[in-house]
Write a structure and sequence with these properties.
heterodimer, A: mainly beta, 4-stranded antiparallel sheet, B: alpha+beta, 5-stranded antiparallel sheet, 20 helices
């Protein structure tokens, strides 16, 4: 059973992870599919993968039920386990790389309720910061804010370069969506967004195209997808808007690169795409029909049953 | 109706009542018996006469009925029926439904009134939710506890108003209603299904459970104090003293059939005796007096200290649950899944089998599942007998079963042990008793009994062997009620699918993600995989649900039509062996063509084939849905030399990809760039075009429109173009930072003049791309004309004309200078997208128009020693000797702008000079002999 599939920055490679404990990397250039690597190292089902920005090399992070986060790196054509993080006490459910401007930084959310931030400065060991009890019961998802911070739209004092405010959003079993902010090297809870009536399964901070509005999508076990918007970065006033109430759990939301389309998928085995009209209403623009218009498809026949 | 008075008890028979549940009110005055058609209210003082009936119209049996235990609400009783709870009001001899509580989506398994609040009621259901209701507001439950697994029993703590316990298969969960999201405590109490659960009346921390595994266990503080295995005796009720758990204090003998319900009756004033009211399937209500002598037998004076126990089969909650299911399930009833797991209990299989009952012995033999673990059966239908061999541990049992001619119509088979049976005679007696009881119970209902008997036999043997192999667990050795916790209650730490997974979200089996710059990657479950539960039921939220599905607690409806093997339906036990690995696939099953039961054997063969659980991952090009076009990205040009031509070409490009709106935009842009609109340098001549409605305002409305569309491509191009529009004419903005564009893009690591690049080209590792480095000059790559300088630069103008000029410069701009930062963000964002498309040169062209300084360099920086005084310097000018720090090796002039030098010898100079030199030389121009090209990154 596949749990996640993600392409790299350029859209030339596909990484999949599965309950058979493997992570597989396929070359999908020109519609083909070649298995490049079958990464073994996890001792449980692998929940999620994440590609780092290519300026740091070909780096992939994976997280698993076995409480480990593994960072894989391609060196001279072979993939190797470059770092293994074992600081969580329960299943690690989500990994997400920070925008490249922040450096090589990974956020990990775990069922032990904690969120870890792993940073690599280029030499020496990985630096680990941990927010314990970020979400009571467990953290299910993390997503970084884009580095183009709306706050920087306000005129900067002369000569000063915009200093990036590092923020990310997380969702957990306490039905909350929380925004975290780095202040003086410490991670602090910035906002607590409350609307869901059951576990939050995924959160996605929309990529910025330079507009002052910040947008976050969150989805939950309760079948609801909310779009949170913050128009004024100075007030930190986030407004939820119900996108849709689905009949089954919604467990994944994903923004398109210009943040105009949201892909929603869940327990009903369907994928729907949503677009915001000019008057701010969200409408479903398509159910992705299986196999139609696909430029290439990968059948992971080798993924074993688990 | 007939009453028999005896010294011992009162017997009232309600023939044909078919009542399934009973409750005694708080006064001990009234009892309610509930059946499908009527509710009988019986006055317990005069039980033989004057009972009233409340008729009800329902096809469902009453699952549970309970009087409100509070005097103030004593006339209320609640009765659960399928998914609903009806609150009845009994006043002046008549009863009506006061209100109904609806919320559960599956059958309600149990309900309990709060001990402390008269209007609070808790219900549990196999839909996995436990609802706490306030009967003042019956629209929805006030609290909802989600248990993942269906609950079969629920009971409020009698001392703590916030605490309640539920049973789930063999587990007990303790909840605090203030924390509804998760249970406070999990107790792996029994190996098999729990049928009875009750709290200690005086101690907050003690509760008792009874289970299918024939044992009753009181718990305190989560520790086991005593464990009492008890053989099944359906028709009797046993009274125990918790301080002496070796044998029951008293056995209430009298009922002819299973005891369904029992309650203590409230003591009347002046009366010393307690009374126990029981209701049995034999349709009799009995009241038992617990007299002073019997009370003395109970070590403690307080009779409420006694734990009264009922035996395994008596409470049969599964039957209550199963009945509605049978009525709702479809025509596929003929198909029966037989579990290969021997530990399953006949009760659980029992009712599901009813519809497919084989009528003859031959049929039964052909249907029997020969795959029961450790069991061998030789069947001889001609002689109406079969021989069964069981191996379990070191023990062997061989047994001959003979079936009478009338079997299974109220005629039980006979069981006889034959050599080489190795078990003790005491055990034989016990086994025979169990087999007899099991078979009788089935044949009474004219059902075949062989398979249930075999399963019962195997599970009993296993439990005996288990007891033998772990003598420390032997409950009879536990004299002291306070003993260390038994190993069976140790928490399962690493088992996949254990309750510890209760806070791990249920795995995603489908998902979609936008990747790269125009792909949607999605994966779904294979089309052939379907969920075992009905599609209307939501996917469970937690991974621990797998174990629930695995053990069949939730008894997914479709499961019965499924072939065995894929799912271990009747795992029954929460402590599973290595073999029974739970997997995510257990939630889903592979679709099969439905088969008739005749081909069952074939089905079990095919079930050994592994199912292909992995689905397809589909990469879909969704660029048509995006507002940015890769083709446009390739075709668009930014030509500051001839803006008119640029606009025309870009309009043609937009037309070629079908963006007619953009054709107009480019046409407008061309018009706005017309040479006759060029702002004059003298502010007094005319108002700049930017202040015309078709100037800045028009552009702004265009930008707003494309912002709404998230068309960052158009936004970035417009911003770049109107920057370009201004720059060649601006005052003194002639010094362009990129004299040669091709140089810049071809040698991104060579030039040091801040390229505005916030990213490197692919293939460069951390810090790798900084080899070219940036010298101290990099702070002012824009020369004097940096827009930043305009905005923030020297504010203290001496000359008012300067100020006017600056104001005019701002006014001339068609792009509002106040939003420069945002325009830069558009460009950076578009640059990022171009980079994903692999259009690095296009990206560089766009990023040239970014006004704000590039992000501070964080790679290697080069420290410079002043060429005059040798002190360490940052920047171009030495702080000590005030001389320029870096001299060009070719022209011997101090370097201010773009520079390059050798990492090995430290010599270098103007980039252009160095390029020229090394185009035909290999050694350092200073003559130091260093092979700079080989040594460093030149």
């Amino acid at each position: 059973m596949i749990h996640d599939a993600q392409m790299d920055y350029y859209g030339t490679r596909l990484a999949t992870c599965s309950s058979d404990r493997s992570v597989k990397i396929f070359d999908v250039k020109n519609g083909g599919q070649i298995l490049i690597a079958d990464l073994r190292g996890h001792e449980g089902p692998v929940w999620q993968v994440a590609w780092a920005h290519p300026m740091y090399g070909n780096i992939l992070a994976s997280c698993s039920y076995d409480r480990k986060v593994i960072i894989w790196k391609e060196e001279n054509g072979t993939w190797e386990n470059t770092y293994e993080y074992t600081g969580h006490d329960s299943s690690v459910n989500s990994v997400c790389w920070a925008p490249h401007d922040f450096g090589l930084m990974l956020a990990c959310g775990s069922s032990d309720g904690a969120i870890s931030l792993l940073t690599y400065t280029g030499d020496g060991p990985w630096d680990v910061k941990k927010i314990s009890n970020a979400h009571t019961i467990g953290c299910n998802a993390v997503s970084w804010a884009p580095s183009v911070v709306p706050g920087s739209l306000v005129d900067q004092p002369s000569g000063q370069r915009p200093s990036y405010i590092k923020r990310f959003v997380s969702g957990g079993c306490d039905n909350l969506v929380k925004i975290w902010k780095e202040e003086d090297g410490q991670w602090k809870e910035d906002q607590k967004l409350e609307a869901h009536s059951d576990w939050v399964r995924d959160v996605a901070w929309a990529p910025s195209i330079g507009l002052p509005t910040s947008t976050i999508a969150s989805c939950s076990q309760d079948g609801r997808v909310y779009i949170w918007t913050c128009d004024d970065p100075t007030t930190d006033n986030w407004n939820p808007k119900l996108l849709h109430k689905f009949n089954d759990v919604v467990w994944h939301v994903s923004w398109s690169i210009t943040a105009n389309i949201l892909a929603v998928s869940g327990g009903d085995n369907k994928v729907t795409l949503w677009k915001e009209s000019a008057d701010g209403q969200w409408a479903c623009i398509s159910d992705v029909n299986k196999g139609q218009g696909a430029v290439s498809s990968v059948t992971d026949g080798q993924q074993n049953e688990q | 109706m007939a009453a028999h008075w005896s010294s011992e008890n009162v017997v009232v028979e309600f023939r044909d009542s078919q009542a399934t549940a009973m409750s005694v009110d708080c006064q001990g005055q009234l009892a309610v018996l509930s059946s499908r058609r009527f509710l009988y209210i019986v006055n317990l003082d005069t039980p033989t006469e004057g009972h009233r009936k409340i008729s009800r119209q329902s096809k469902w049996d009453i699952g549970t009925v309970q009087w409100n235990p509070h005097d103030s609400y004593g006339y209320f009783f609640a009765a659960s029926s399928n998914q609903r709870v009806d609150l009845y009001q009994w006043k002046d001899g008549t009863g009506d439904i006061a209100t109904s509580l609806q919320g559960h989506t599956r059958v309600i398994s149990d309900l309990d009134w709060s001990v402390f609040e008269p209007d609070v009621l808790v219900t549990s259901s196999i839909d996995t939710y436990i609802y706490i209701w306030d009967i003042k507001d019956t629209r929805k439950p006030t609290v909802s506890l989600s248990a993942v697994a269906g609950a079969s029993q629920v009971k409020w703590n009698k001392k703590n108003g916030n605490c309640l316990a539920t049973s789930h298969d063999g587990d007990v969960r303790i909840w605090d209603r203030r924390r509804p999201s998760t249970a406070v405590e999990y107790i792996a109490a029994h190996l098999y299904k729990i049928h009875g659960l009750d709290w200690h009346p005086d101690n907050e921390h003690i509760l008792a459970t009874s289970s299918q595994d024939n044992s009753v266990k009181p718990f305190s503080n989560g520790l086991v104090t005593v464990m009492v295995p008890q053989l099944r005796r359906e028709n009797s009720l046993l009274l125990w003293n918790v301080y002496d758990l070796h044998s029951p204090v008293h056995i209430f003998v009298g009922h002819d059939d299973v005891v369904l319900e029992f309650h203590w009756r409230k003591q009347k004033e002046g009366q010393k005796d307690y009374q126990l009211v029981t209701w049995s399937r034999d349709q009799t209500l009995r009241m038992w007096r617990v007299d002073a002598q019997l009370q003395r037998l109970c070590a403690n004076d307080e009779i409420m200290e006694l734990d009264e126990l009922m035996d395994g089969m008596s409470l049969m909650p599964e039957q209550k649950i199963m009945q509605p299911q049978e009525q709702t399930s479809g025509p596929s009833e003929e198909e029966v899944a037989f579990s290969e797991d021997s530990s399953s209990m006949p009760v659980m299989v029992g009712d599901t089998e009813q519809c497919s009952l084989p009528q003859t012995l031959q049929q039964e033999f052909s249907l029997i599942n020969v795959h029961i673990r450790n069991v061998n059966i030789e069947m001889d239908a001609m002689n109406r007998s079969c021989t069964v061999s069981v191996r379990c541990g070191n023990h062997r049992v061989r047994m001959v079963v003979k079936f009478p001619v009338q079997y299974p119509n109220n005629a039980a088979p006979s069981f006889q042990f034959v050599p080489p049976t190795t078990i003790t005679s005491a055990m034989k007696v016990k086994l025979l008793k169990i087999l007899k009881d099991t078979s009788l119970q089935k044949v009474k209902r004219n059902q075949s009994c062989l398979e249930p008997c075999l399963r019962q036999l195997v599970s009993c043997m296993e439990s005996f062997v288990d007891q033998e192999s772990s003598p420390s667990d032997n409950p009879f050795s536990l004299q002291n009620p306070v003993t260390p916790p038994l190993p069976t209650f140790a928490r399962v730490t690493n088992a996949y699918g254990s309750y510890q997974d209760a806070n791990i979200p249920f795995p995603r089996t489908s998902g979609a993600r936008f990747c790269g710059a125009g792909y949607l990657v999605y994966f779904t479950r294979p089309m052939t995989m379907h969920r075992t539960v009905s599609p209307t039921e939501p996917t469970p939220r937690s991974l621990s649900a797998l174990s629930a599905y695995h053990s069949g607690v939730i008894a997914p409806m479709k499961i019965r039509t499924e072939a065995p093997g894929n799912l271990l339906l009747y795992g029954g036990s929460p402590t599973r062996s290595e073999k029974e690995q739970v997997s995510i696939s257990s939630f889903y099953y592979k679709e099969r063509k439905s088969r008739r039961w005749k081909s069952k054997r074939e089905t079990s063969d095919s079930s050994s084939r592994p199912i292909k659980a992995a689905g397809k991952v589909i990469i879909q090009d969704i660029s048509c849905l995006l507002t940015v076009h890769k083709a446009l990205g390739e075709m668009y040009i930014l030509n500051r030399g001839d803006l008119q031509e640029m606009c025309q070409k870009n309009a043609a490009s937009a037309l070629s990809v079908g963006r007619r709106d953009l054709v107009q935009v480019w046409a407008l842009a061309a018009a706005a760039n017309d040479i006759c609109l060029t702002p004059k340098s003298d502010p007094d001549v005319e108002t700049p075009w930017a202040h015309h409605p078709f100037g800045r305002q028009l552009l702004e409305s265009l930008l707003t429109h494309y912002c709404h569309l998230h068309d960052v491509q158009t936004l970035a191009m417009l911003c770049s173009m109107f920057d370009a529009h201004l720059q060649p004419q601006g005052n003194g903005v002639s010094c362009h930072p990129f004299p040669s564009r091709s140089n810049h893009s071809r040698y991104p690591s060579f030039t040091s003049s801040g390229s505005g690049s916030s990213m490197s080209d692919p293939g460069f590792g951390t810090g790798g791309w900084s080899g070219g480095g940036q010298d101290g000059d990099h702070a002012a790559p824009w020369g004097d004309a940096s827009p930043d300088e305009y905005r923030y630069g020297n504010i203290n103008y001496v000359d008012p004309r300067e100020r006017e000029k600056e104001q005019h410069d701002k006014n001339k701009r068609i792009l509002d200078p106040a939003n420069t930062q945002q325009f830069d963000d558009f460009k950076k964002c578009y640059g990022e997208i171009l980079y994903r498309w692999g259009l690095q040169e296009k990206r560089a062209e766009v990023l040239k128009f970014v006004s704000s300084p590039p992000e501070p360099h964080r790679g290697i920086e080069f420290g410079i020693y002043c060429s005059h005084c040798r002190s360490e310097v940052r920047g171009t000018q030495c702080a000590i000797c005030k001389g320029f720090t870096f001299q060009c090796a070719i022209c011997h002039v101090s370097v201010r702008g773009s520079s390059n030098f050798c990492l090995s010898c430290g010599h270098g100079g103007h980039t252009a000079h160095m390029l020229e030199w090394f185009s035909n030389q290999e050694v350092c121009p200073t003559g130091c002999g260093c092979h700079c090209l080989l040594e460093s990154t030149f």
